[in-house]
Records
---
Amino acid sequence: MKIRDGRLKKPLSKSFEHLNSSIGFDIRLAKYDIAGSIAYAKALKRVGIITDKEMKSIINGLETIQLEIENGKFVPNPENEDIHMNIEMRLLELVGTVALKLHTGRSRNEQIVLDERLYLIDALKNIKSNLKNLLKSLYLKAKDSRKIIMPSYTHLQQAQLISASHLLLAYYRAIYRDHQRLLDIEKRLNEMPLGSGAVAGSSIGIDREFLLKELGFISLTKNSIDAVSNRDFIIEFEFILTSIFLTLSRISEDFIIYSTQEFGFIILPDELTTTSSLMPQKKNPDSLELIRGKSTKIIGNLFSIITLLKALPYSYNRDLQEDKPGLFESIDWVLVCIDVMREIIDGFSFNDSRIKEVIKGSKDYIFATDIADYLVQRGMPFREAHQIVGKIVSFSESNKKRLSEIKIEEYKKFSPLFDKDIYKVFDPVKSVNNHDVYGGTAINRIDEILNEIEEELKNI
Ligand code: ARG
C-alpha cells in the first residue's frame, strides 16, 4: 500500500525517491516512534476510535517490531520514505488492516517532533553522564596537581605563575557550565507535541494530558502551529554541543602546545598518541588534533540548523527533514570526544622538572608583577611601579642578568623603596600564594574551590 496512490497517478521518480527517503538516518528514532505509537493507540481507544481488542493487536504488533529492530531483523524499505511509514507498513503486514486506524487524527509533522524530543531527552542523559565523568577526572587531576607550579599565559607569552590545578579547574568551569546548560534545556525538551495534528490541532478530541503522562513529558506544547514548526530546541541542543566542543578543542590546543618538545610541560599517555609512519622518534598528539578537527563539523552543524530555519515559512516544511543528520552526527561525536578527553585527563602527567627548568629559563621575568606588587606594598602608585619594573627588566636584558642576580645597590638606583627582602619575591610558591582571593590561584583558594567542587559533583 502506498499513501500517495490516492492523490497521485504516477509513482515517485527514482532520483526523487533517493532524495525523499530519510530512513537511512531516522531509523535511529524507531524506538521513540514505537513508544509514541503505543501511547497513541491507547489514546485512540480512550476516544473510541479503536476497540480494546484492536488496541491490543496494534500494541502487540508494535512490540514485535521493537523486538525485530533490537534483533536486527527489521529491514526498512527506502520506498517507505521514513521511519514513521516504515513502521506503519510493517505493522500492516503484522496485524492487518487494523494498522490503518493508528494514524487517525495524527500527522507525521507532530510525530517527527515527538520522536526527536524523546530521542534528545535520552541523548541528553548520556551526554550529561559523560560530562560528569570528565568533570570528576578534572577534579581528581586538579587535586593531584595543587603543588605543581607552572607559568600561565596571556597572548601565549609567559604571564604569572599559577598552580597547575588552577588551569585544570578553568577547564572544569567551562565544562560545568555546559552541564548546567543541559539541565536548563531539559524543561523545554519536555513539551509534548502530540495532538497538534498536521498544523491546526487534533480533530478527534485526543486526550493530550493522557499522552503526556503515558510518555513521561512535563508539559504540553501550547500552540499546534508552533509545535510542528519549532526546532529551536534543536538549535539550543546543538549550541550546547558546540560549546562543549569549543572547550574540548581549546583544551586540545593547550595540550598540543604543552606536549611539544619546546614546552614539554606534559606527557601524553601512549595509548592516546600515534607515531609517524616515517619518523620513528615521533609521538604525535593525534587524539587531541582529531578532537580539534571534529569540532569544525559540530560548529558547521549548528550553522546548518540555524540556516535551515531562517526564512522557513510557518509551519511544517519538508526542509525540516534535514534537521536530523547534523544533529545525530554532533551527538555521536560529542559522546566519543568527551570520553577521549577524559582518558587524556586521566592519563597525562605533568613534567614538573621540565616546568621548573622553563621557569628558571624565564630569567625571573615571570616575577616582574611580583616586584611591582612589592613596590606597591611600600606605597608606590601601581603605574609608577609598572614603569620602574619595566626599566629593571630592560636593564636585566642588556646586562644579561636574571632579575634575582641584580644587586641590591642596583635595585636601589631604580627606587629607594627596594630593600634586601626584595629577593624573597623570587619564590614560586610565594608568588602563587600572593593571589589570595576567592577564585585566585593561591593554594588555599584552590583548596577552597576543590571543596566546593566536591559538593557540586555530589549534586549533578
Ligand atoms: N521525514 C519527515 C521529517 O523528518 C517526517 C515528517 C514528514 N511530514 C510530511 N508532511 N511529509 O521531517
Note: The chain has three domains: 3-104, 109-357, 361-458.
---
Amino acid sequence: MNADMTFNPQHLRRIGVMTCGGDAPGMNTCIRAVVRTASNYELEVYGIRRAFAGLVAGDMIRLGPRDVGGILQRGGTVLQTARLPEFSQERLQKLALRRLHEHEIQALVVIGGNGSLRGAYALHQRGFPVIGIPATIDNDVWGTNMAIGVDTAINTILDAIDRLRDTASSHQRTLIVETMGRKCGYLALMAGITGGAEVIHIPEVPLSLEEMARRVEEAYIRGKTHALLVVSEGAEHRTTDIARYLEEQETGFEVRITILGHVQRGGKPSHFDRLLATRMGVAAVEALREGKCGYMTALQGRKIVLIPLEEVVQNERQANLEYYRIAQMLAK
Ligand code: F6P
C-alpha cells in the first residue's frame, strides 16, 4: 500500500518525537532541534520514551523548549531507546496508533536507524503522518551521505587506533581492531583509510586469511614496526579467527586484538553531528508543518533533502568501494 505523502497540516497542534534502535551521538541535539523548532511554530511536542516499546505502552512526556536545555552536547538519548523487532506485527502498530490518538498527537518524528525507519514507514502506511531522521553510527541507511552519529563514532575509533598504534609500534605487533557496523563496512573502511591500516576487512569485500597474512608479512619485510588490521564486525572472518591464523603463520609480529564495542556509540557529538542533527530536526518539523509526510531527511551534497521512506526501506546502503581501492594503494 502506498499512503499519501501529504496531509492537511491545518489541524496540526501536537507532534511526538522518539529515538529508536542503537543510540547515536547527536540524538539529543536532534531532539532539542525538534522541540525548539516546533515551539517556534506554536506546536506542542510529546517525547516518547523507550522508542516503539514506550509508544505502545503510552510512555510519553510533554517537552517544552526549557526541557531540552543543556542536552545538545550530551551523548546517548535523554528519551532513552529500545529495540522492538515485534513492531512489525499489525497488533502493535494498531496499538501505537491508538496511543497516539489518545494523546492527541497528530504527527511523529522518528529518529533512528534502519529498523526504526521501517517502523516509521509502517505507521505512514497506516495513514499516520511521520517523518524519519537517520541516526545510527553504522551509516547503513540508504539515501543519505551521513546519518547522525557516524562522524563522532569514526573520530572515537580513530582516537583508539592512534593510541593503539603507539603501543603496537613499541612492541612490534600486529593489532587487529574490530569496529561495529553490522553488515555495512563504512566505519571500518573510513577509520581504516584515515587510520593507516594495512588491511581492511569489511562485509562488502571478500578477503582470504592467506591474503591478510601475506600483507602483514610484507609490512614486516618492508621494515614496518607494526601492522594494523581494521575488521568490521559483520565481515566474513571473525576477529578471533584472523588473530589465530596470523599467529600460526609467524608473520614476524606478535598479534593482539582490540574489540572496540560500545565505546564507539558513546561520547559528545562532534561539531559535524551537532550541525547535521540540528539541520535534520528543523527540516523534519518544517516538513510536517508544510503537510509533508512519509519522508526521511537526508544529507545529499551539502543540502538537507526529503526522500520517501518507501525508497529508504527498500534499499540497502553499502560502503563506497572507491575508498577501499585508495586504502589498498596507500597501505605501503
Ligand atoms: O546499529 C548500531 C549498533 O551499534 C551496531 O553497530 C551493533 O551491531 C549493534 O548496534 C549492537 O547492538 P546492541 O547495543 O543492542 O548490542
Note: Residues 153-265 form a domain with the Rossmann fold fold (CATH 3.40.50.460).
